From TrEMBL:
HTH myb-type domain segment(s): 9-65, 66-116
Predominant subcellular localization, coarse grouping: nucleus
Protein name, UniProt field: Uncharacterized protein
UniProt domain Myb-like: residue ranges: 9-61, 62-112
Organism the protein comes from: Citrullus colocynthis
Entry keyword Secreted: no
Keywords of this entry: DNA-binding, Nucleus, Repeat
Alphabetized Pfam families for the sequence: Myb_DNA-binding (PF00249)
SUPFAM superfamilies: Homeodomain-like
CDD domains given in the database record: SANT (cd00167)
DNA sequence: AAAGTACTCAACCGCAACGCC
DNA sequence: TGGCGTTGCGGTTGAGTACTT
């Protein structure tokens, strides 16, 4: 194991690729095929990291890639797969010929998350916001916050063993939820969905992240278990109250805009 | 027209898994 | 069995562009 020995970053070009560099990669691959990427820069005459070459090939130069817009069918499939397996972009991308995991991930982060949020659907749990608020609103007291859950996202959260390597293609017309007989640990998030870019910062509600760490740490049928099922915890604080108030206010606006979400029946 | 803000997406980073010796 | 190198993956960044004020 261990950290991969990457190129000497001070001596390799970084940033956007030029047409000339692309041509070198294409020429190399067409004559040698894809192989040891660490050798590619030297053999192809590129002043790039091998990893960067592999990424450029995988995400852009591969001849089987599509560069057109996502179709509504692809969009729907991404949403369903994300609901079933979470952010396992490589698995999702395998179901979309010509699309890369990076494509899917970017499309999700820039388009689909916002779309679901606007529809009143939580883009992580795929549950209606009103239902989640009902769950959280039913809590009479705030559970004690376990220390390991406080702070930034737990990057080490890994799929449960039963979900690993479920990479068989889906047969058409099957129930995706039944295809995936494993559970995906849902990552915590902030309700007011923003793209994860450097430009987003101040709009998250104070306390929200902590609250959703707790939400994410428990499971229900769809990966989240209501707080009311938790036995431990009892404290409350004003930041949580204001957070809940903000959520309730937001939910009220959503309900006004999308009354159909009240019956909990969704069609993406 | 200019400045500020939001959005998009290619590329990078770091970690873990894998395979070979 | 453990170390090393390579590959795969998901999260994040930031430059370029579009949009708004």
């Amino acid at each position: 194991m261990g950290k991969p020995p990457c190129c000497d970053k001070s001596n390799v070009k970084r940033g956007l690729w030029t047409a000339e560099e692309d041509a070198k990669i294409l020429a190399y691959v067409s004559s040698h095929g894809v192989g040891n990427w660490t050798l590619v820069p030297r053999k192809a005459g590129l002043n790039r990291c091998g990893k960067s070459c592999r990424l450029r090939w995988t995400n852009y130069l591969r001849p089987d890639l599509r560069h057109d817009s996502f179709t509504p069918q692809e969009e729907e499939l991404i949403i369903k797969l994300h609901q079933a397996i979470g952010s396992r972009w490589s698995v999702i991308a395998q179901q979309l010929p010509g699309r890369t995991d990076n494509d899917v991930k970017n499309y999700w982060n820039t388009k689909l998350r916002k779309k679901l949020s606007k529809m009143g659907i939580d883009p992580i749990t795929h549950k209606p916001l009103s239902q989640m608020l009902f769950d959280y609103g039913s809590i009479s007291s705030l559970p004690t916050i376990p220390k390991p859950l406080i702070g930034p996202f737990n990057k080490t959260s890994t799929p449960t063993p039963t979900m690993a390597k479920a990479q068989q293609p889906f047969s058409s017309g099957t129930n995706l939820g039944q295809q995936f007989q494993f559970q995906t640990p849902k990552k915590p998030h902030i309700f007011n969905e923003q793209p994860t870019t450097s430009s987003c910062s101040s709009s998250s509600i104070n306390g929200g992240e902590t609250v959703f760490h707790l939400a994410a740490s428990s499971k229900q049928s769809n990966g989240i278990e209501p707080f009311s099922q938790r036995s431990e915890g009892s404290s409350s604080d004003s930041s949580f109250d204001s957070f809940v108030d903000a959520l309730l206010e937001q939910d009220f606006e959503i309900k006004c805009s999308f009354p159909e979400i009240l019956d909990g029946c969704f069609d993406y």
